């Protein structure tokens, strides 16, 4: 049976999730793709840390070792931050490897450059996991709404802030206590600034803007407001009046102008985001033909994010097989 060799860059929660998903779904992948998927290498930071990786897999701290894997075809990237992720993926594309990434900060900044480079090398990039975990918003926009003109997107793009607001309202907890629970459950990092400050949602929103409108607004003009200033009194008053605060990321296209914001917004019971609770993400798309569409699901975590990356991988391989068959 034909073998597809893949490598994973980063072996934190997401990278480990991709590895486990491929190992446990090998038969399904073979049935769907007609090939064996082999993880040939894993790039890590600390060789001393114990990891559950098969002995035959190359485990290295040197990216050159990954690039030198014979017949490497796919790179899964799950590193945090812009650098060295962009450099690694750029080099992998030069080696004619297809790319699947979950790195929202890097892709918001360099996605357009990577996509153009991939086109010149006739390779593909999957980035579903950069925006809303297991919620298939990228493929929906790219494939299911090609004729539609999208005028507005409203979304909950950060499960941590949504969880905190839900806990504060339902359990009458202080912001600090709700944040502590989120950290204990693994929903929030030790430094939660990106989540509660709205920056995580901002990067995801910029990726959606590039995909939907072909460009991003000026980053300096985007209003970014976090949730830490919301008080229990504000949430209780809203609740008594049948409103709920949601941390909403919004894009609006009017003529040639794109406006964007991330901020707490009061929603009523008729709003599509009103009942999106806990760590769920949701995206509301207003399109001229399809009308208003809402897609909701788990926005983060090992399995949802790994699911998005594996589905991207399957789509890439299937599309390549189709193009070969038609050529």
Automatic annotation (TrEMBL):
Active site feature: 204
What is any one GO biological process for this UniProt entry? Answer: threonine biosynthetic process
Span of domain Aspartate/homoserine dehydrogenase NAD-binding? 10-128
Please write the reaction equations for the catalytic activity of this protein: L-homoserine + NADP(+) = L-aspartate 4-semialdehyde + NADPH + H(+)
Residues reported to bind NADPH: 104
The record, for SUPFAM superfamilies, names:
Glyceraldehyde-3-phosphate dehydrogenase-like, C-terminal domain, NAD(P)-binding Rossmann-fold domains
Q: Where are the membrane-spanning stretches?
A: none
Pfam families from the entry? Homoserine_dh, NAD_binding_3
Q: Where does L-homoserine bind?
A: 189
Enzyme Commission number: 1.1.1.3
- Give this protein's Gene Ontology molecular function annotations: homoserine dehydrogenase activity; NADP binding
What pathway is this protein said to act in by its record?
Amino-acid biosynthesis; L-methionine biosynthesis via de novo pathway; L-homoserine from L-aspartate: step 3/3; Amino-acid biosynthesis; L-threonine biosynthesis; L-threonine from L-aspartate: step 3/5
What keywords tag this UniProt record?
Amino-acid biosynthesis, Methionine biosynthesis, NADP, Oxidoreductase, Sodium, Threonine biosynthesis
Residue ranges constituting the Homoserine dehydrogenase catalytic domain according to the UniProt record = 136-314
Q: Where does NADP(+) bind?
A: 10-15
Q: Which class of enzymes does this protein belong to? A: oxidoreductase
Q: Which protein family is named in the record?
A: Belongs to the homoserine dehydrogenase family.
The protein in question is named Homoserine dehydrogenase
Task: Name the gene behind this protein.
Answer: hom_2
């Amino acid at each position: 049976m034909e073998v597809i060799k893949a490598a994973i860059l980063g072996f934190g929660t997401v990278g480990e999730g991709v590895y486990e998903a491929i190992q446990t779904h090998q038969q399904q992948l073979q049935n769907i793709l007609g090939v064996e998927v082999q993880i040939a290498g894993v790039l890590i930071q600390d060789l001393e840390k114990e990891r559950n990786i098969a002995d035959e897999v190359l485990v290295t701290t040197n990216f050159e070792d990954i690039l030198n894997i014979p017949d490497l075809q796919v790179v899964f990237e799950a590193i945090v931050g812009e650098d060295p992720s962009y450099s690694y993926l750029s080099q992998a594309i030069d080696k004619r490897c297809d790319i699947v990434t979950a790195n929202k900060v890097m892709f918001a900044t360099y996605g357009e450059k990577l996509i153009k480079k991939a086109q010149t090398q006739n390779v593909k990039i999957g980035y579903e996991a950069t925006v809303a975990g297991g919620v298939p918003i990228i493929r929906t926009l790219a494939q299911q709404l090609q004729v539609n003109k999208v005028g507005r997107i409203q979304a909950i793009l950060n499960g941590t802030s949504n969880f905190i607001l839900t806990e504060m309202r339902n359990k009458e907890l202080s912001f600090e206590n709700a944040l502590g629970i989120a950290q204990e459950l693994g929903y929030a990092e030790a430094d939660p600034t990106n989540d509660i400050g709205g920056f995580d949602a901002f990067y995801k929103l910029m990726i959606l803007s590039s995909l939907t409108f072909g460009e991003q607004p000026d980053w300096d003009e985007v209003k970014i407001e976090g949730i830490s200033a919301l008080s229990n009194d504000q949430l209780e008053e809203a609740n008594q009046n049948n409103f709920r605060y949601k941390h909403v990321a919004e894009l609006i296209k009017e003529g040639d102008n794109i406006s964007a914001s991330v901020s707490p917004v009061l929603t009523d019971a008729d709003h599509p985001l009103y009942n999106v609770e806990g760590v769920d993400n949701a995206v509301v798309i207003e399109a001229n033909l399809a009308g208003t569409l809402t897609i909701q699901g788990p926005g983060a975590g090992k399995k949802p994010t790994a699911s998005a990356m594996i589905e991207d991988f399957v789509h890439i391989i299937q599309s390549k097989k189709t193009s070969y068959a038609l050529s």
